[in-house]
Design a protein that fits this description.
Layout (H helix, E strand, L loop, with lengths): L3 E3 L2 H17 L8 E4 L2 E9 L25 E10 L10 E8 L12 E8 L2 E9 L6 E8 L7 E7 L4
Parallel strand pairs: 1-6
Antiparallel strand pairs: 2-3, 3-4, 4-7, 5-6, 5-8, 6-7, 8-9
């Protein structure tokens, strides 16, 4: 399975700072970005795609998920999965996300579901992909996770409010 690897330490630090800034800027609790379902701890984060745009072509960040889409207000959805029993990261799941504008229930944005691709941030296994999220709409992120050896898909839903 192909994994995108983000290796730049300064970029990793910048992404963490940006994510913390975004979370701090919105009226949300940490609990809104964490769910426990199907024996997993599921964490989500959303980072502006501009954080990885503009890198030189030799940087892995410039080609992650096929490159940053040039249209709309792109954001990078990042999901981290942990096994609740062992506390270990899950690196071999299939993860799919659907984004909904909560002002228009049932209406999907950015086309059909998107597969979240496995990637490494430093040495930490995560999953991600780009989504168009025009501000200031609140969004519902619906995840479907299928772990190897399991027949049941685990579903989790998160509310996300972009900073104003």
């Amino acid at each position: 399975m192909k994994r995108a690897t983000i290796m730049s330490a300064p970029l990793n630090a910048l992404i963490v700072v940006a994510a913390l800034t975004i979370v701090a800027a919105v009226p949300a609790t940490a609990a809104e970005y964490y769910k426990s379902a199907g024996g997993m701890a599921i964490y989500v984060g959303v980072v502006p795609a501009a954080m990885v745009q503009g890198h030189a072509s030799e940087h892995p960040e410039s080609t992650i998920h096929g490159g940053t889409p040039a249209w709309g207000e792109q954001n990078h959805l990042i999901v981290a999965l942990f096994d609740r029993a062992s506390g270990k990261r899950i690196h071999d799941a299939k993860v799919r996300a659907t984004l909904f504008d909560t002002r228009q229930p049932g209406k999907r944005l950015a086309g059909p579901h998107k597969e979240l691709e496995p990637m490494l941030v430093g040495s930490a296994a995560t999953y991600g992909n780009y989504f168009n999220m025009p501000a200031p709409a609140p969004y519902r992120i619906e995840l479907e996770v299928l772990r190897p050896g399991k027949s049941q898909i685990t579903k989790a839903s998160f509310e996300y409010r972009p900073p104003l």
